[in-house]
Design a protein that fits this description.
Largest sheet: 4 strands, mixed
Helix content: 25-40%
Strand order of the largest sheet: 8-9-2-10
Order of helices and strands: EEHHHEEHHHHEHEHEEEHHHEE
CATH class of the largest domain: Alpha Beta
Number of strands: 11
Length: 342
């Protein structure tokens, strides 16, 4: 069993300074955190966080951001700039790397960007729709479903992929060939389809698209980020914690008398749901290897150095790791959503 944790994770390092451009969301109020008893086999607790800002952001704020970005990429349309900005805010930190991910144009067959994250073993395909209002225009079923079909195509047999690639733009085909090579020839890669729009998408249509993507021959996820979600990403971007940690799989260790390995609690007043469970130290270490320092971006304080307490923790890990679970309080992760997968 695993816990899948969505973005807005909190761990152990001070946040980076905010970006200079655009209106800054100055106040952040985190929901109360649940506590976990964790240790050497490093149990982890998951909770849901809520955040508020000193003023609401809107489409014009985002367009101003795109205009600033356009001063450096003058050949891009507003929709291309929107996709480029999203890559910077959600997936990659380097502007040149993000620009190289763009592939949209005539003959793109619903692919505006391809990003291959070899560190996390994920292939991202992005379709962007910049509408002139927030959550007002509903996305067409044909657009959403044709994008979801890319998952099964990428994992499909050679003849199906060849038929799909007919008439495909040369740059798009080259990038998709690379992506297909990753998922077909290398272990542990997965495909993540991101349909990003300032418009809206019905719950039923998104669910249908998720089912289509999940029907691929390999691990494939599909997500819609609608107008309100885009503004949430923008708020994080201005707060200096972009790109966020998108999601994490947390393997649960079931042991003792708790057969499922998970204890959960829902607070009806705050609407926060929490889980407490154990996971191995090796799996906990993988979280950092797959995300880097972004895992710690929203934490209030950084590493305190080799204090007496930290030295004692290190000694326990080295000399008596079997007792670490009992001696230490554990890891708290705050996220915007979590899903239990059995």
């Amino acid at each position: 069993m695993r816990k899948r944790v969505a973005s807005s994770l909190v761990a152990v390092q001070a946040p980076r300074p905010p970006r200079a451009t655009g209106p800054r969301a100055t106040e952040i109020a985190e929901a109360p955190l649940a506590c976990a008893h964790v240790g050497c086999k490093t149990p982890t607790v998951v909770a849901i966080s809520t955040r508020t800002s000193s003023r609401e952001l809107g489409l014009q704020d985002l367009r101003e951001e795109l205009r600033e970005l356009g001063s450096r990429f003058r050949n891009l349309s507003e929709n291309d700039l929107f996709v480029l900005w999203f890559l910077l805010a959600y997936l990659v930190e380097d502007e040149d790397v993000a620009a190289r991910g763009l592939v949209g144009g005539s003959g793109d067959k619903s692919v505006d960007a391809v990003v291959i994250d070899d560190r996390a073993s994920i292939v991202f395909l992005i379709q962007g729709k910049f509408r002139l209002s927030i959550n007002q225009k509903s996305e067409q079923r044909s657009d959403v479903i044709s994008f979801a079909d890319l998952g099964p195509v990428l994992w499909g047999d050679r003849d199906d992929y060849k038929r799909f690639a007919e008439g495909l733009d040369a740059l798009v085909k080259s990038r998709l060939d690379d992506a297909r090579d990753r998922v077909r020839r290398r272990d542990r890669y997965k495909v993540h389809l991101l349909y990003v729009t300032t418009g809206s998408c019905s719950t039923g249509l998104e669910a249908e698209a998720k089912r289509i993507a999940a029907g691929a021959k390999g691990p494939t996820e599909f997500d819609v980020i609608d107008g309100r979600g885009v503004l949430g990403v923008y708020r994080d971007y201005l707060d200096g914690v972009a790109p966020p940690v998108r999601s994490l799989d947390l393997p649960v260790q079931a042991s003792g008398r708790v057969s499922s390995g998970v204890s959960s609690r829902f607070d009806p007043t705050s609407q926060i749901e929490s889980w407490v469970f154990s996971m191995s130290g090796r799996d906990a270490a993988k979280l950092f290897r797959s995300t880097g320092v972004r895992l710690f971006a929203r934490n209030i304080r950084g590493f305190l150095g080799l204090t007496d307490i930290n030295r004692a923790m290190e000694a326990t890990l080295i000399e008596r790791p079997e007792y670490f679970w009992y001696f230490n309080n554990g890891i708290t992760i705050v996220c915007s959503g979590a899903q239990e997968i059995r």
